[in-house]
Amino acid sequence: MNYKTxxxxxxxxxxxxxxxxxLLDFGYDFPESVNGYYGQLAMDGFSTAYNLQLLFALLxxxxxxxxxxxxxxxxxxxxxLIAVFYLLxxxxxxxxxxxxxxxxxxxxxxxMAGLKISLAYLSPPIRDLF
Length: 130
Known about the structure:
This protein has 6 helices and no strands. Helices cover 80% and strands 0% of the residues. It has one domain. It is mainly alpha-helical.
């Protein structure tokens, strides 16, 4: 059984799903009140927590790529970045409004990310590659 291929699938698929979810939200027909909220927010400027959350999301994607190539300490780096990402998300004053399909895709991607990191630590054929 080719464990590396399955593991890399668990890394690449959530990234692709999140990008597809973001693209779906660009085409989703939100009510005018939601569009007005985001328009006013863009004019006023986003909070520092929002900008930092975007930065940590980008860094977490980079850590995902490092995990894909089994770089040493990439698992710990990914966990640290995701923890900071979720902490920033909890203190962010802006509302996060998504389409229903995007919410489902992000939740499935989160489940796959949890499976990925548990396999990276608990599965001997994968754990020994780091």
